[in-house]
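Exercise: predict the fold of this chain.
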Amino acid sequence: MEDKLKIYNTLSHKKELFEPLNPPHVGMYVCGPTVYGDAHLGHARPGITFDIVFRYLKHLGYKVRYVRNITDVGHLVNDADTGEDKIQKKARLEELEPMEIVKYYTDRYHENMRQLNTLPPSIEPTASGHIIEQIELVKKILKNGYAYESDGSLYFDVEKYNKDYRYGKLSGRRIEDLLHNTHELAGQEEKHNAFDFALWKKADPSHLMHWPSPWSEGYPGWHLECSAMGAKYLGETFDIHGGGMDLLFPHHESEIAQANAATGHDPVKYWMHNNMITINGQKMGKSLKNFITLEEFFTGKHKSLDQPYAPMTIRFFILQAHYRSTLDFSTEALKAAEKGLRKLFDALYLLDDVKPAATSSVNIKLIEEKCYQSMNDDFNTPMVIAHLFDLAHGINQAYAGKESLTQEDIAYTRKLFSSFLFDLLGLKDEKEKDDSQLIEYLMKTIIEIRQEAKNKKDYATADMIREELAKMDIQIKDTKEGAKWNFK
């Protein structure tokens, strides 16, 4: 396409032409979940957002290495390096080993992402699996003078770093404001400044997850893992780093500081952040206890829901808003998404019944061009969906005889619809799955009725059932294990 892809870079606060560092290879790192609870709607948004980026970059011909981490150690209850490790706290409450918690919730997260039809990442590293890399990174930062040790713990010296670089370049924070607005918390006395962040924490006797290091038996700070794993799998500088807006500060800001302190340059060319999902104007999240898990959406078992909502309804609901805009949850919005998605699928299937004409009155190529323009404009999925509704309208009009499509354009429309709806937006028709399950259930019942007839020696009825099914190209075969069926 003539239009080139533009991505909004959080670092520059503008849309920039996408130019990979090493084309056609693209490195993309996305911050994954801290696995101590079920995934909720807020986890679905980055999963789907960066799935779209992954799909489209591959569609454009790039070879993408997509790294999405799993945080299984180091993320404390208080982001200011105090409190208990989130996973350890969950393990203590449930009387399990921390890695049992990690395994259980990682498996559930993967299943939720599969249900939402997100493609698996190329690599999915864990923080606990890269302790050596994190220790080596701390050594570099310490050697370059941007860290200090305090009673076995290592902290990043933000004030000293800010004299050589700018701490706050991503989030727009100023160190002067941090100096005045950051308050000392209990347990932070060993820091030079309250806003200094942990690179390595000395473990107290009750801490379940700890490793040996040159400084103490301890564990890495939360911000360290992404810097270490990003560099290991994508290099010291790579193309895209993504995550939710809530990670912009302090997590991603600290990643930039760590990379500069260790290597002398920024780690990432394009920073991308999806915005929050809100409920009644408040961010939906575990800390506010106003979240709804994905499992609750899929089963309908939550007081705020009036029915179950299929994974594709959730995916379509999220894609109807641009990833950088806030998205407010309501059951009305979900119902509208469910209805809108059904209209798109129905229009696609209606193509089979459109009678070809000699000429076309629907400009399919123009709609295709608009779809690509929207994707190239910072992955504008709401506009893509709007253009697909225009296409659906054209199909409905052609079916009603008010518009016309040639045989060639009918085939091209089917290909265009499939490409954007299935391949790029990652949507699929769950009604087809429901229909297949219904067929399995009906055939099981029919076979049981036929077997009952045979048991009563009513062979005329048994043969009649076989013959009627054969008319529908369904073959019944009697075996030692019982009757089996298949389509001819």
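Check your answer against the key: Residues 430-455 form the longest helix (26 residues).
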